[in-house]
């Protein structure tokens, strides 16, 4: 059985496993560069500065040419660790792509539920589960055992930057998996 999941755009679904490196830039905020294993830039993530005027965390995902793909907006109350993703730079309800939130308030291991806007059930469309030590995550389709991506965090040192090594399985939207990844610990 072949699983296909187009969330952002079909051009981000490729017929082979996509190996990505998401590197946190050395700058204020949470800015990331997403490359393939050959070092080609595929996506960039820029964060906004959180102020009293804009108390929410915002991340903007752009393609390699600078075109805005997604606006990720963190909930005002960070305790529930909820994020909403919108097309482009929008925050309009009709541009909502997905909502990502914790499955419960108290957790020993991170478990996140992802809901697509057309979902009218209480069953998530995707689930992100951390390993026991919390340095890697698996992305599943809903409540199934079908893994569609694996994310491993490599902690940086004084000389190196923090990175996420991401394997996105065939026909799964890698821009969507990148969006989930950059919201894991920001």
Key words describing this protein structure:
Porin
Task: Report what the structure shows.
Belongs to the LOR family. This is Protein LURP-one-related 15. InterPro entries: LOR, LOR_sf, Tubby-like_C. The chain has 186 residues and is mainly beta. It has a domain at 10-101 and 151-182: Beta Barrel (Porin). Helices cover 5% and strands 40% of the residues. It is built from 1 helix and 12 strands, in the order ββββββββββββα. The protein has one helix spanning 174-182, and strands at 18-24, 32-36, 41-47, 58-63, 68-74, 83-87, 96-102, 111-115, 126-130, 136-141, 147-154, 163-168. The protein has a 12-stranded antiparallel beta barrel with strand order 1-2-3-4-5-6-7-8-9-10-11-12. Strand 1 (18-24) and strand 2 form a beta hairpin. The termini are far apart. The model has no long low-confidence stretch (mean pLDDT 87).
Strand content: 35-45%
The span between the termini is 35 Å
CATH-wise, what's the superfamily of the domain at 10-101 and 151-182?
LURP1-related
Radius of gyration of CA atoms, rounded to a whole number: 16 Å
- Secondary-structure-derived class: mainly beta
Strand arrangement within the widest β-sheet reads: 1-2-3-4-5-6-7-8-9-10-11-12
Average pLDDT for all residues:
87
Helix segment tally: 1
Quaternary structure of the protein: single chain
Largest sheet: 12 strands, antiparallel, barrel
Order of helical and strand elements: EEEEEEEEEEEEH
Looking at CATH, which topology of the domain at 10-101 and 151-182 would you report?
Porin
CATH architecture of the domain at 10-101 and 151-182: Beta Barrel
Uncertain segments are: none
Number of β-strand runs: 12
């Amino acid at each position: 059985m072949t699983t296909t999941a187009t969330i952002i755009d079909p051009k981000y679904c490729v017929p082979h496993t996509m190996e990505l490196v998401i590197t946190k830039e050395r700058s204020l905020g949470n800015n990331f560069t997403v490359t393939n294993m050959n070092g080609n830039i595929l996506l960039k993530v820029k964060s906004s500065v959180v102020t009293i005027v804009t108390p929410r965390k915002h991340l903007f995902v752009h393609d390699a040419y600078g075109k805005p793909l997604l606006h990720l907006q963190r909930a005002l109350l960070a305790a529930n660790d909820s994020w909403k993703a919108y097309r482009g730079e929008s925050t309009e309800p009709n541009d909502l792509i997905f909502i990502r939130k914790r499955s419960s308030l108290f957790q020993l291991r991170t478990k996140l539920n992802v809901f697509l806007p057309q979902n009218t059930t209480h069953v998530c469309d995707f689930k992100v589960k951390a390993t026991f030590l919390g340095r890697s995550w698996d992305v599943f389709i809903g409540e199934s055992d079908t893994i569609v991506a694996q994310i491993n965090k490599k902690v940086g040192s004084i000389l190196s930057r923090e990175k996420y090594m991401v394997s996105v399985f065939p026909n799964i939207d890698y821009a969507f998996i990148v969006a989930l990844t950059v919201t894991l610990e920001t």
